[in-house]
Write a structure and sequence with these properties.
The protein has 398 residues and is mostly helical. The chain folds into 2 domains: 193 residues, MFS general substrate transporter like domains (Growth Hormone, Chain: A); 204 residues, MFS general substrate transporter like domains (Growth Hormone, Chain: A, Up-down Bundle). Helices cover 81% and strands 0% of the residues. The longest helix is centred in the middle third of the chain and has 33 residues. The radius of gyration is 20 Å and the shape is globular.
């Protein structure tokens, strides 16, 4: 009896990359559009923060369940279920309100994202040899940055030309392409049998909690501006959705460029120095965004914010992989799962804190508060942060 066909490593990487790109494209599309919708403006900054955080809250809830589903049924089912959730989300977004319907859509988007992230990473792990798995994960994660970079400016241009529903119509078309790839290329794929430990195995490794704290701080940095800055840009500087999208694109672009530079620095510079510098730069950037009265200065602050997130995330990504090698048994998949959970926690915390603070004390004072909290959290994460492991020692651990 011939063996059942399995998904090829290249097909797995293509499916995972497109799935993650689509998820972050829809996430980026929402940044300049949702805060300016009448239903969201009428709900106030606190409710807007909760709306943005609902994506991450749903992702945190769904991620462990998605992991169990992948272990039991393989990757194909969760990938298709995530596609259904994404389709529901983008269709509901096109309605533009009322607020509760947008909240349902954002929650469905987060649930779909949780399924897509877990199943995509598990698919790569299941069919890619261990020695090439880290490189494949890196390529897939680059699709995340590209999706987040493209989403805000594309959404702004489409809103200006065709109205607020247009970006989500384009997102629906992209989801169709994504769905065809998932349906055609993904075979019934059992979970990886050489990377069986989960995130809890990493928590027992000394220093992991500090890395998780750093990731939460980095994710909260950028997400804190998402529900509150767009309305400020329109009311104070007269920007339309296209202008708002470009301001946020500055942060993502500088983050992508800084990733390349910081990636080289990780081999020679202590992660404590890099993450500490990232927390300080993030606090400064939020203070600039909150206090200046010039749109170019705000854009410069957002550019610095992108650099700050790179200084935090790049060494944290390296460290979490090394923690996976130190775990018993070693686990690369569990390391990425824990990283994703920490990231989702940060993008849930940032909007909630920022939205509530803006409603209570105004935009500038609120961002100063978030900046101080970010700096304090980043410095606290340095206390037990592990140092980088030399490559030879890391190889022996693996």
């Amino acid at each position: 009896m011939p063996a059942r066909p399995t998904t090829s490593p290249r097909a797995a990487l293509l499916v995972a990359g497109v799935a993650l790109f689509t998820d972050l494209f829809v996430y980026g599309v929402a940044i300049p559009v949702l805060p300016l919708l009448p239903a969201v403006v009428g709900a106030g900054p606190s409710a807007t923060g909760f709306l943005f955080a609902s994506y991450a809250v749903a992702m945190v809830v769904v991620t462990p369940l998605a992991g169990r589903a992948v272990d039991r049924f393989g990757t194909r089912g969760p990938l298709m279920a995530g596609l259904v959730g994404l389709a529901v989300a983008v269709l509901l977004f096109t309605a533009g309100g009322p607020f509760w319907l947008l909240l349902v859509a954002r929650t469905a988007q987060g649930a779909a994202g949780g399924l897509a992230w877990v199943a995509s990473m598990a698919l790569i792990a299941a069919v890619t040899p261990l020695e090439r798995r880290g490189q494949a994960f890196g390529v897939a994660m680059s699709a995340v940055s590209v999706g987040l970079l493209v989403g805000p400016p594309v959404a702004g241009v489409l809103v200006a030309a065709f109205g607020p529903a247009a970006p989500f119509v384009v997102a629906a078309a992209l989801a169709v392409v994504d769905g065809v790839l998932r349906l055609v290329l993904v075979r019934a794929t059992p979970p990886s049998d050489d990377d069986v430990a989960g995130p809890t195995a990493l928590v027992r490794v000394p220093g992991t909690v500090s890395i998780v704290g750093a990731v939460v701080v980095g994710a909260a940095l950028l997400s804190a501006t998402e529900p509150v800055l767009p309305l400020q840009l329109t009311s104070r500087f007269g920007l339309d959705a296209a202008g708002v999208g470009l301001v946020f694109a500055v942060a993502v672009l500088t983050s992508i460029l800084a990733n390349l530079v910081v990636g080289r620095w990780t081999a020679t510079t202590s992660p404590r120095v890099l993450i500490g510098a990232g927390a300080a730069a993030g606090a400064l950037s939020l203070a600039v965004v909150g206090l200046v009265d010039d749109v170019w200065a705000v854009s410069a602050g957002m550019g610095l914010l992108g650099v700050a997130t790179a200084l935090v995330f790049v060494p944290a990504t390296v460290l979490i992989g090394e923690q996976g090698a130190r775990a018993v048994p070693p686990t690369l998949g569990g390391a990425y799962a824990l990283f994703n959970l920490a990231y989702a926690g940060g993008i849930a915390l940032g909007p909630i804190v920022a939205g509530s603070a803006v409603e209570g004390m105004g935009f500038g004072s609120a961002l100063l508060l978030v900046a101080a909290a970010t700096l304090a959290g980043g410095l606290a994460a340095l206390v037990r942060l592990p140092g980088a492991t030399p490559p030879t020692a890391l190889d022996q651990a693996r």
